[in-house]
Design goal:
By secondary structure, this protein is of the alpha/beta class. The protein contains 2 helices and 24 strands.
Length: 248
C-alpha cells in the first residue's frame, strides 16, 4: 500500500477517535444537565421531589406532576413515564395521585400511570420496562371501539421493600404486601400477601414465607454469605478490582 494511503488512513482513524470521544463527552454533559433533581427541576414542578432523588435524562412522558410526590433518594431511569390524571392540565384536587416512598427505583423505560391513586412503598425496586397502572380499558359494548369506551380505574398499592422484575405488569386494583417478589413478565392483579413470590400471567403465588416454616417451597439456592462487619465499601471495590485483574 502506498505511503500516502497509510497516512490518510491513520489520519481518518485519529479523526474518528477524536469525534467519538467528543460525542461521548457531549452526551454525558447533556445527560448530566438534563437530569431532574430538587435543586434543578427544569420545567417539571412536582408536588414534592425529595433530597437525593434524580430523574435521568432523557425523561419519558411526565404530566400532572403537581399531583406526583417523589420521596428521598429515588432513582428514576431513562425514558420513564410518570403521569397523574387522564391527560395534562386537569385539576385533580388537593391530594397527591401518584406517591413514591423513599428509595424507590424505577428502571429504564418503565411506566407508572396514575389516573386514580397509585402508591409505591419505600425501597421498592423495579426492573426495566415495568408497567404499573390504575386504569384499564373496558369493552362492555361490543359495537364500540374499545379505545373509545370509558376506562375503569382502581387504586394500586405496592408495599415497601418489593422487587418487581423486568417487563412485569401491575394492573388496577392490585395490592402488594411488604417484600413481595414479582417475577419478570408477570401480570399482577388482586391481593398479594407479605413475603410472597408471584409469577405467571395471571400471576399466582409460587413461594411464600412464614415465621415458623420459613420459605415454602424451600429455596433452592444457598443463602448469600453476609459481608463481615467492619468491611468498607472501598475494600469491597478493591477486592472486585483484584478479581477482574485475575480474570484478565
Amino acid at each position: 500500500m502506498p505511503k500516502n494511503r497509510n497516512t490518510f488512513s491513520s489520519v481518518a482513524l485519529w479523526r474518528r477517535r477524536v469525534l467519538s470521544r467528543a460525542v461521548h463527552r457531549g452526551w454525558a454533559w447533556v445527560q448530566e444537565s438534563g437530569a431532574v433533581t430538587a435543586q434543578h427541576p427544569g420545567r417539571l414542578r412536582f408536588g414534592r421531589i425529595g433530597a437525593g432523588t434524580r430523574l435521568a435524562f432523557p425523561q419519558g412522558t411526565v404530566f400532572g406532576e403537581s399531583w406526583i410526590e417523589l420521596g428521598d433518594h429515588c432513582i428514576i431511569g431513562e425514558q420513564v413515564t410518570l403521569t397523574a390524571g387522564l391527560m395534562p392540565d386537569l385539576d385533580l384536587g388537593s391530594e397527591p395521585i401518584l406517591t413514591l416512598g423513599d428509595g424507590v427505583v424505577l428502571g429504564r423505560g418503565s411506566h407508572v400511570i396514575a389516573d386514580t391513586t397509585v402508591t409505591i412503598g419505600s425501597n421498592t425496586y423495579c426492573g426495566p420496562y415495568v408497567y404499573i397502572t390504575s386504569t384499564n380499558h373496558s369493552y362492555d359494548d361490543p359495537h364500540e371501539p374499545v379505545g373509545k369506551q370509558w376506562p375503569r380505574m382502581e387504586p394500586v398499592v405496592i408495599g415497601p421493600g418489593c422487587w418487581i422484575g423486568t417487563g412485569a405488569v401491575v394492573l388496577p386494583g392490585a395490592r402488594l404486601g411488604r417484600n413481595v417478589v414479582v417475577a419478570a413478565g408477570a401480570v399482577v392483579r388482586g391481593e398479594v400477601p407479605d413475603h410472597a413470590v408471584v409469577a405467571g400471567a395471571p400471576a399466582r403465588v409460587v413461594r411464600s414465607w412464614d415465621p415458623e416454616n420459613g420459605w415454602q417451597p424451600p429455596l433452592r439456592t444457598p443463602a448469600p454469605v453476609p459481608i463481615p462487619e467492619g468491611v468498607t465499601s472501598e475494600q469491597l471495590l478493591a477486592v472486585a478490582q483484584l478479581e477482574d485483574t485475575s480474570r484478565g
